[in-house]
Amino acid sequence: MNTVSDLSDVDGSSVVVIGGGFGGLSTACYLSDAGADVTVLEKNEQLGGRASRLEVDGFKFDMGPSWYLMPDVFERFFNYFDREPSEYYELTRLDPHYRIFFKDGDRVEMVPDREQNREVFESYEPGAGDRFDEYLAKSKKNYEVGMEHFVYEDRAELSDYADWDVMKNARGLSLIGSMQDHVEQYFDHPKLQQIMQYTLVFLGGAPTNTPALYNLMSHVDFNMGVYYPENGVGGVVDGIVELADELGVTFHTNAPVSEIRGREGAFVTRTETDAEFYSESVVSNADYRHTEMELLPPEKRQYDPDYWDSRTYAPSAFLLYLGVEGDVGDLAHHSLVLPTDWDDHFEQIFDDPAWPADPAYYLCVPSQTDDDVAPDGHSNLFALVPIAAGLDDSEEHRQRYRNLILDDIAEHTGVDLRDRIVVERSFCVDDFADRYNSTAGTALGLAHTLEQTALLRPGHHSSAVDGLYFTGSFTTPGIGVPMCLISGQLTAEKMADRAT
């Protein structure tokens, strides 16, 4: 796999990074290691961006990302700095990886044993076991080629694809069509199609609008495994912050940025407390639209409001963080509750925005693996329902939906939480917008639709302001913790390339 480009040209430069999410932390580490003087300004009281943590009465919740996938990306990141992830946190492979409760009363679980998973597929549809093997072989090839040639390399221009090496490796990849079209070539049973497509939630898309290339996520799921990092995803944040400290990065929390002024080599980044930070370059890991429309004057913006209004945003989410007396029965560390037909839910996210009437949702119960996230005799869990970005988020809507979800959990998993809740918090559209300056309250950023993948996403370097850069989920390679780590590398490489 390709190595990181030479970053030595940033040696001695000064950089302000706005936002301490995974993209900002990654960029800061690469630049500081190369000799830059890096300062990170974080709006909130803790680092990690959407990977914030909530601690209430002995319960410790990961507020955002909770799946540890693509361990090779984390290993590659730490290896670049001559470290190992295990120096900062330990991993536990989950068994089962996850359990699915279908709303017709059926349930299934995916486990580390691939042969058992194959037998599950065969039990639903004769011949599906063989097609499971074929699908994963295709997924594995797409992952290996896609990561090397299209993820770890930032191909920002159409001309970047016009070379023999790229065209040779692209042959046979699923570059055209949707995930729905691709999966239907292998499996007829709707439940098997759902199992192969549930990871689209992590990409902020739907089966009909996400490129078929993302079948590579099944290789991640079935071949690479699902893990739990020590102290949750917040423990991964702690590890990367510790690494950044070792590399010399300076952090300021509770420092929301109100303005970016200046030009290449002479930027002033001002916070809401009127503190000013001077630097030669600025990297924004904040919401891309917020950065352009709120932090820059009109003449220094790349995109106008019509551009941002025309984008497809990944879903927001309705989240319930629950501390519960007793255990939670058959709920696994990761559980999915799915209607047998989830088309209506996706339509109510992307086509006709509304609070889903029959939602598909995710339940995370880290206390099934980690005794430290809940007091003795209690369970820690959160429920996450993907909903359309920009929905009306009133207290009345939240209360109604809270009751709907708790009733639905009881009916379809057999676990009644309603009379055992001792801690409860909710988080929804308005909270994403307020805490993270998130456009329309999206939980993730720009969706990975057919029109918003690869070079069709906003760039790492501003075309309007030399010296202003972007990282994180709006840029390439896209949404998700591993992708944001890689975006930090791509941003640092872009900065070094333009400094030559």
UniProtKB/TrEMBL annotation:
One GO BP annotation of this record: carotenoid biosynthetic process
GO molecular function: oxidoreductase activity
Keyword Protein transport listed: no
Domain Amine oxidase: 23-495
Keyword Transcription regulation: no
A Pfam match: Amino_oxidase
Pathway assigned to this chain's UniProt record: Carotenoid biosynthesis
EC annotation from Swiss-Prot or TrEMBL: 1.3.99.37
Name of the featured protein: Carotenoid 3,4-desaturase
